[in-house]
Amino acid sequence: MGAKRVIWHVGFERNLRRRGPPSFEVRSEVPLSEEPPRLDYLLLRKLTPEGEALDNRAQTLRHLWPLLPRVSVVEYKSPGHPYRSGQLDRLWGYVHTYFANQRALPRHRADGTLLSSTEGGPEVREREDLCAALVVAARSPGLDADVDAMGLTWEDLDGGYLRVHGGLFTLYVVELDVAGPAEGDDLLHSFGHGAS
């Protein structure tokens, strides 16, 4: 299948080059970044066989965990490598790619019953099963501008936790410089601008 797909792509590329307008340059197999994309963290909610959440006691980011669905793509921007304009697009790209890959997994056995994720089925079946979380030391003008440019809106959940509305997936933002002190968590705060 892989070789056949390459042959089709080569033929289609030749068609574009030869029969497309000369005012366009055609590039193929273009890398999207210098290093392969990878998620900072993927959080998978553990469930009992009945679908109930397991122990939710947390010692850090205490207000985040109850908000998270089955699967969460988490991006952490440290003080040394803070959020830069355009990185929200990259985070959305990760979430959409993860969702698309999950959609491509087999969902049913031959007898029609659902496959579980431990049997090779998807972790995520619906958009509501997946969210993004962006953890930053503090909101920045670049992040605010990116949210505004995408037509998204902020909801303050208090204590350094925010929800961004308007995307195809839920996005939570955690400001460590607010959440750490609000939760009395010096270690968490140290991952922002707090003293360690």
Topology:
Layout: H1 2-19, E1 41-44, E2 71-77, H2 87-103, E3 130-136, H3 141-149, E4 153-158, E5 161-165, E6 170-175, H4 176-182, H5 186-190
Parallel strand pairs: 2-3, 3-6
Antiparallel strand pairs: 1-2, 4-5, 5-6
Concise structural overview:
Helix content is 29%, strand content 18%. It has two domains: 30 residues; 159 residues, no CATH class.
Name the poorly predicted regions. none
Main β sheet profile? 6 strands, mixed
Computed Rg: 21 Å
Structural class: alpha/beta
Can you tell me the number of structural domains? 2
Explain how this protein is built:
Helices cover 29% and strands 18% of the residues. With 196 residues, it is of the alpha/beta class. It folds into 2 domains: 1-30; 32-190, no CATH class. A 6-stranded mixed sheet has the order 1-2-3-6-5-4. Helix 2 (87-103) links the parallel strand 2 and strand 3. The relative contact order is 0.14.
Question: What descriptive keywords fit this protein?
Answer:
single chain; 196 residues; alpha/beta; six-stranded mixed beta sheet; 6 strands
